[in-house]
């Protein structure tokens, strides 16, 4: 069963407390074609609180199982469902028979950027084609039954760079597009911003800003933000990515590591040869000191999918392309 992180007013939860389930994914790139909706529930299933000592606040169905839980499955095992037209499946996936991954049920589905690649790949997407990428995004989000779908762009969304919020939102009809903007659902204040710090040797330049220009964007984030959605991680938090030299010059890098002494990282105190912190220090300062959201959702760093907590704030890197793992949060109101 997928791990579910509980946030909000968990300690004071009662049988009548309202829970909003948030499902987080990021950095799907072309893997979005392997993501499918959860299986439709048959019959009338009552949703209630668990009486279990281990999970007293869980939301369960009449059999006592997690009401929202779905497991990954293969295309072969669900071929009948595809023929019924219940799930979108591209012809390329029908032929390749790759594994298919279900996105868990919930109230809100959040995608924190890098839906696209920054170059043409297999003739599927060209990120310089604005109309095309938005249409593919609409097709993707329309598959899912979540009440609200939220999207924040990443550095691979080059086609969205320079486009006004309303220009994108008018065309992205299947999701809420957050671009330095807020959205409130069931009293939960979401805020989204797409920026990532400048790094050398990257071919994806959408929404990338140098230090002096990225900091003002973070300062614009309202303090009354409950769920912050960015593409960039904060510095030192789930942000360890492969160094350019490690990726492009692996033999030379291994040779250097074999002769040079290992040193502890100034940021995290750990030793991680071949890896660098990709996060933004200005974002970290704003999040930990001023904004203090209950939940911070991001991606960008494919190697660091995970969930952690710092100073009472829950952080989620849901980069999907490597780990193939979305994250689930129950927000207790």
Describe, in plain words, how this protein is organized in 3D.
This protein is an alpha/beta fold and 333 residues long. The chain has nine helices and 21 strands. Helix 3 links the parallel strand 8 (108-111) and strand 9 (148-151). The two termini are 24 Å apart. Residues 40-49, 68-98 and 118-126 have low confidence and may be disordered.
The end-to-end span amounts to 24 Å
Taken together, the total number of domains comes to 1
Mean pLDDT: 77
Helix content: 10-25%
The count of strands amounts to 21
Query: CATH first level: which class?
Result: Alpha Beta
Indicate the radius of gyration in whole angstroms: 20 Å
Reading the helices and strands in chain order gives EEEEEEHHEEHEHEEEEEHEEHHEHEEEHE
Shape: globular
Protein name: Calcineurin-like phosphoesterase domain-containing protein
Family: Belongs to the UPF0046 family.
GO molecular function: hydrolase activity
Brief summary of the model shown:
With 333 residues, this protein is of the alpha/beta class.
Looking at this protein, list some descriptive labels.
333 residues, alpha/beta, Purple Acid Phosphatase, chain A, domain 2, six-stranded mixed beta sheet, 9 helices, 21 strands
Topology:
Blueprint: E1 4-8, E2 19-25, E3 35-36, E4 48-49, E5 59-60, E6 73-74, H1 79-83, H2 91-96, E7 99-102, E8 108-111, H3 130-142, E9 148-151, H4 165-171, E10 176-177, E11 181-185, E12 188-193, E13 196-197, E14 208-209, H5 211-219, E15 227-230, E16 240-242, H6 244-248, H7 250-259, E17 275-277, H8 281-291, E18 295-298, E19 306-310, E20 313-317, H9 320-323, E21 327-332
Parallel strand pairs: 1-21, 2-8, 3-7, 8-9, 9-10, 12-15, 13-14, 15-18, 18-20
Antiparallel strand pairs: 2-21, 4-5, 6-7, 11-12, 16-17, 19-20
